[in-house]
């Protein structure tokens, strides 16, 4: 099959929104080159989070971001270019910087499609315990408590490098003590479900509205034997789900978190934790307000660059 790549030059804060636009228009995979991913890497043997990489040794952008979507031959790409440009431009209505919004297309052959991801992804220690490892890399843990998450970033929606994903990985590391029932909403690549399993969670259900994302999650779960029993399927947020989970985690845009808040409250046991990220600076106060209005108690809020992650809980006793 022949593929066409549509590349959007944008800002770091708009990466997830642009990725969504491309997949919504039919992209079967998304590649992200984000200067922000290298901002906190330090030259030398160790970085401040245990990175074992010299940033100068890896080709990367030095400003902004480029998001590339890969489209199959049955999609007429020339008609998409102005639509994508317009949708990216409208991100400013949501207080997201669209950046240059330069949209271009080029043909991609099968060999390049199969290997294009590999030069951009390397093992990365993302928390005290968790390291993201591309499935083609051979990597040996550097400490006894280090847990590996194998991913094939070729079709991933969340590879652990973006601040929103890191915030949720750190939050999971803080709240999981063992055997929790976890629901992963908007699972994308499945990285949060795999991390939860590595940290000791019990039953996990993972949902995404996008079939491509669900298939990507299934492939990545299969790369991690610890996550073999994770249930993954297509669902819009928590529509039609009635249960009592210990933890609900969602790394999605703030506008989508808003309708999820009451669903999460209903599907959490008293004392259960609600972990959310994907919240840009300007939307943080809105999400805090919606959580409080619903009855959640905010335990902790973390920030990484322009993104916020929140840990909240459902009170055991409702006043």
Commentary on this structure:
The protein is built from eight helices and 14 strands. Strands 10-9-8-11-12-14-13 form a seven-stranded mixed sheet, sandwiched between helices. A four-stranded antiparallel sheet has the order 2-3-1-4. Helix 7 runs parallel beside helix 8. It is globular and about 55 Å long. The termini are far apart. The model has no long low-confidence stretch (mean pLDDT 86).
In N-to-C order, the SSE pattern is EHEEHEHEEEHEHEHEEHEHEE
Can you summarize the main beta sheet? Answer: 7 strands, mixed
Please count the helical segments.
8
Number of strands: 14
Residue-averaged pLDDT: 86
**Based on the structure given, which CATH architecture of the largest domain is correct?**
3-Layer(aba) Sandwich
Instruction: State the distance separating the first and last CA atoms.
Output: 59 Å
CATH superfamily of the largest domain: Vaccinia Virus protein VP39
| CATH secondary-structure class of the largest domain | Alpha Beta
Outline = globular
CATH fold assignment of the largest domain:
Rossmann fold
As for the number of domains, it is 2
Structural class: alpha/beta
Binned strand content = 25-35%
Query: Could you give the order of strands across the largest sheet?
Result: 10-9-8-11-12-14-13
Rounded radius of gyration (Å) = 19 Å
GO biological process, one term: methylation
InterPro entries: Ribosomal_L11_MeTrfase_PrmA, Ribosomal_PrmA_MeTrfase, SAM-dependent_MTases_sf
Enzyme class: transferase
Protein name: Ribosomal protein L11 methyltransferase
């Amino acid at each position: 099959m022949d593929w066409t790549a549509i590349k959007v030059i944008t800002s770091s804060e708009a990466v997830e929104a642009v990725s969504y636009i491309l997949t919504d228009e039919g992209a079967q995979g998304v590649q992200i080159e984000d200067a922000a991913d290298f901002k906190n890497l330090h030259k030398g043997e160790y970085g401040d989070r245990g990175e074992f990489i010299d940033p100068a040794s890896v080709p990367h952008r030095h400003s902004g971001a480029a998001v590339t979507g890969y489209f199959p031959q049955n999609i007429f790409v020339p008609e998409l270019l102005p639509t994508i440009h317009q949708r990216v431009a409208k991100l400013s209505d949501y207080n997201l910087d669209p950046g240059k919004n330069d949209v271009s297309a080029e043909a991609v052959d099968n060999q390049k499609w199969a290997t294009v991801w590999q030069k951009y992804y390397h093992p990365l220690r993302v928390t005290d315990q968790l390291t993201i490892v591309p499935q083609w890399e051979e990597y040996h843990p550097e400490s006894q408590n280090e847990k590996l998450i194998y991913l094939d970033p070729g079709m991933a929606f969340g590879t652990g490098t973006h601040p929103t994903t890191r915030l949720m990985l750190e939050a999971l590391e803080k709240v999981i003590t063992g055997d929790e029932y976890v629901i992963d909403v908007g699972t994308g690549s499945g990285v949060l479900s795999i991390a939860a399993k590595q940290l000791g969670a019990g039953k996990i259900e993972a949902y995404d509205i996008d079939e491509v994302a669900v298939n990507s999650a299934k492939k990545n779960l299969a790369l991690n034997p610890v996550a073999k029993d994770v249930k993954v399927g297509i669902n819009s947020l928590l529509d039609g789900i009635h249960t009592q989970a210990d933890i609900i985690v969602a790394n999605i845009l703030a506008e989508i978190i808003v309708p999820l808040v009451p669903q999460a409250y209903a599907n959490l046991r008293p004392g259960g934790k609600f972990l959310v990220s994907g919240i840009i600076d300007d939307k943080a106060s809105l999400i805090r307000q919606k959580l409080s209005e619903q009855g959640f108690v905010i335990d902790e809020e973390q920030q990484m660059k322009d993104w916020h992650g929140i840990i909240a809980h459902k009170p055991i006793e409702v006043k």
